[in-house]
Amino acid sequence: MQVAATKQMTNVDLIRGAIAAKIDSAAFSSWIAPLDFEISNNVLTLGAQNQFSADYISSVYENVLSSVADSFGLSLNICVHGAAKTPVANDNCVQSYVPMPASTNMAAFDAFVESDENAFVISACKKIAAGSVSFSPLFIYGPSGAGKTLLAECIRNASNGHVVMMTGGGFVAEFTRSLRDHNIFAFKDFCRNCDTFILDDVNALAGKRATMDEFLQLLIDLRNSGKNIVLTSNTTPNNLTGFDRRAQSLLASGLVADVIGPSDNVKRIMLMRGGVAANVASALSNRITGDGHMVTGVATKIKAYSELMNTDVTLDIAERLLADTLRKSQTPLAMVKSMCATLGVSYDAVCGTGRNRSLVLARQVMMAVLHRATKLSLAEIGNYVGGRDHATVMYALKQVEKLVKTDLVLSAQINDMIAEYK
User: Fold this and answer.
1) The pTM is what?
2) Looking at the domain 332-421, which fold is it?
3) Helix, strand, or coil here: 39?
């Protein structure tokens, strides 16, 4: 009898070691080490302290534990310590799962203002909405307010098959809730029983080890089943923090496409679609420094003012209404004086007759910046830089164009000033 007990103990120790070799040491210490190991009738029974632990271990580590048990010629049973020895995953017990209410935004692709920079990602989104593709998962990344969520919703609304769409935070919450409510397997079935799975803001999973493991297994299962997968993030897979190399590699295994924030023209169209008058939208578009969310907020504020005050919003009213939002417009004279400080020359010297090399270059750079950042004529530009004539400005533009081809530092400096004053 004592020999049998010693043999069983030895087997348990070997099994513990085999499991420890297959999973992360922190996960083993937190979840596996506290379990009560028992071998009886060729069944390895793992007793957890409570039902939550049993459900969690079953959902995350069942494949690994079953593999180890099988290597010792044993079947696996996970249960609560001291409870009846019945498997947690009981195929005869039908679980139900009711998802949390999802977004009801019925946006179509026409709602996304297209630009040349975003033509590729929009084509990919339309392709995946049309049916099965070879580049799943489609990983869309870009800055906040660029339209990632809108594109995800457009895919959902344009797809013919069954679509499951969640936010990253929603997936974490629903996974945790399903563990608490003991319907984890129904949650798994819900996520897998679809033609297209969309997760908006995948970076919300960072640092959630158990949720991450479940999500990666979900991606593998969906991809192996030929399902479409769409993921969005604020950065590329390789730059996601809190994701290991295996996770980053899986996320980047399909098509990675970026979406660019709205240009001035896109902002103008967004404002007009929001009910802003065309002339007001044109004047404001290049003075809104924020992203798409900011543009939407501006349009909403103008529309609300018009409805509440029962009046059309002119440019003067809009500038007063949005004084805390719009970038302050600068006069050409203010731009020239600001550039003098940036380039380290005095305004009087720029407007004077000095011809030393650094001073001449500074004048030429100012002319080039004014030409690209404003709608001033060449004669007007010359007037703001010491009363130079049309021909002098033309010569300056040609000289700067030659210099920026070889002087990368000067080119970057000019581009920064253009972006500041445009």
Assistant:
1) 0.63
2) Chromosomal Replication Initiator Protein Dnaa; Chain: A; (1.10.1750)
3) strand
